[in-house]
Amino acid sequence: MHRRYVHPLLDVPADLASHRGWTEEVYRALLALRAGQMSRAALDAKYLHRKAILVLDLTGFTVSCFDGGETQAFLRILDAQMVCIPVLQQHDAWLIRAFADDLVALFNDAGDALDAAIEMQRRIALFNECGLAAADPAQCCIGIGFGDVYAIGPNLAMGDEMNRASLLGEDIARGTETLVTENVYEVLRHRPDVVFEPFSHDDALFPFFRATPSR
User: Fold this and answer.
1) pLDDT (tens digit, 9 = 90+) per residue, 105-119?
2) Which of 25, 125, 137, 160 gives 20 to 30 Å between its CA and that of 15?
3) What is the pTM of this model?
């Protein structure tokens, strides 16, 4: 026998949306799905879209805060955004969002996402070599996924490939590395200008590859 739940539930879309999780429209759709008033197919038709997701994280953010204080860490973030956002724009990023020391970008084409990643790694290295960094030079850790994701949330990309790209970029990639999911590899593996190296990591539950420009 199930226990009776007697506590209040927040099920008003406008009130839920006021906490800035999803939009009121999304909450209405999910509540309708939960109540059996909307089908999964209808939800997919409304929100699912195919995108390449690039997640960029910076090395040494926490250490920079400890060693040089918060303002030094802020300047490292500023440097990275000044260098990287123009690259994302030049490679037709559909969405660009900055959060803390991360950049998230969506592309219609996986090749554009990889081209942007390669160019950002090159420009950050050059920026650092030229002595332009305002604080301790940072390096980029990048993860890229490609597939169907839901256009909900601030990144408009909730789903498995977003989770994978985030894990690769934020937790697994080291400075200067670009790691891609199996979906990205399958689409781009025949590119002659890129070498894809199978990779493994204890924290990853899926195959992924390190992508580097061919010499």
Assistant:
1) 999 999 999 999 999
2) 160
3) 0.92
